[in-house]
Amino acid sequence: MDCRFCKTPLQHVFIDLVNSPASNSYLTHQQLNEPETFYPLKVFTCHNCFLVQVDEYKKSDAIFDNDYAYFSSFSTSWLAHAKRYVAAMTKRFSLAGDSQVIEIASNDGYLLQYFVERQIPVLGIEPTANTAAVAIRKGVPSMTRFFGTELARELLQLGMQADLLLGNNVLAHVPDILDFVAGMKQVLKPTGVITMEFPHVLNLIEQNQFDTIYHEHFSYLSFYTVSQIFESQRLMMFDVEEIPTHGGSLRIYAKHQDDDTKAVSTNVAAMLQKETKTGLTRLDYYEGFTQKAFQVKLGLLEFLMTQKRAGKTVAAYGAAAKGNTLLNYCGIKNDLIDFVVDANPAKQGKFLPASHIPVVQEHVLREIKPDFVLILPWNLTDEITRQLSYIRDWGGQFVVPIPSVRVL
């Protein structure tokens, strides 16, 4: 296997999470007695460009099918983040009724709806038909396609180019990252702006966020590596921000290399210096991560078995992809966790892949009154503990698994 970016043969294993189903392949009751397909989940570090990447064992068109279960709008904090972004970008780049905003991986219109409210023209590009249909019902024009150079050429033929081209948590999802970035360059107006948000691999390592690794995430990104990828397609970083979403992310700002209308922020050099100082440009920094993940496995299994021996009930909240990675790596089944609550109707009534834990509505939590609620989407801990604060009424406690198992 060669590096997706620089084509260097990959020799250094970052972490091996062994085998698991695709994290969003939720099961119906009828499927519980059918075989499940498991895929290797081994991650490598390129010793040349330091792109951390998983092999493409599961094809992207099989992951992002017409029954995709992730809808962005079910998180109130994520909606608030999107609304703040729209306000900030509209002001910073003077977007108006004669501007064009294009979002790649626009999901259910969670973000573009706020541009529509401001009467700024938008186009969403979303490969999953069911989420795109929800966006269209919100008044967000959407194309059900994967983005790359082929679609970029089609958009150019239609006279469509972007003043603002954005993508949140999509750059890590694309198997051919060079084709993806090349396509963005094509549809960007000469003075247009690209913004991308993605989880920072620095936080993944420092905070032991191994559960953010799953087949849908092909790449785990640093500013250093992303800058090289964009430069290879004649795009230049002119700003970068650290933001708290998804356990610590970066928002990058890019422009055409020959666009002299935007000054390069001092944030660019500062971020490169921070990553270099931390060790992201040294191979030894990436070693030993498997052992850190293994300690979480031991801690979580010990906690769950202790509670079961004591006759306690443990439920989970959030049927998130990261939760499936965690549960399947730890070998946890529905004998240790009774059920998982999720607000998304597309997941309710189904079962988590491999673990076969049932996904239920929130009222079940009030009826069963579990002793512990394990928060699987730990990045939303504040939002979830506020929402479910009533479990304290019966002595219930929250448990967070990352970066180490702890009871709140």
**Second-tier CATH architecture of the largest domain:** 3-Layer(aba) Sandwich
Approximate helicity band:
25-40%
Low-pLDDT residue intervals, each spanning 5 or more residues? none
Coarse structural class: alpha/beta
The helix/strand order is EEEHHEHEHEHEHEHEHEEHHEHEEHEHEE
Protein name: Methyltransferase domain-containing protein
Keywords: Methyltransferase, Transferase
GO molecular function, one term: methyltransferase activity
InterPro entries: Methyltransf_Zn-bd_dom_put (IPR013630), Methyltransf_Zn-bd_dom_put_sf (IPR038576), MeTrfase_14 (IPR013691), SAM-dependent_MTases_sf (IPR029063), Thiol_S-MT (IPR052356)
Write the layout of secondary structure elements.
Blueprint: E1 12-20, E2 39-45, E3 52-54, H1 60-63, H2 76-92, E4 101-104, H3 112-117, E5 122-125, H4 129-137, E6 142-143, H5 149-157, E7 162-168, H6 177-187, E8 188-199, H7 201-206, E9 219-220, H8 223-232, E10 235-243, E11 249-256, H9 266-278, H10 289-309, E12 314-317, H11 321-330, E13 340-341, E14 359-360, H12 363-368, E15 372-375, H13 381-387, E16 397-400, E17 406-407
Parallel strand pairs: 4-5, 4-7, 5-6, 7-8, 12-13, 12-15, 13-14, 15-16
Antiparallel strand pairs: 1-2, 2-3, 3-9, 8-11, 10-11, 16-17
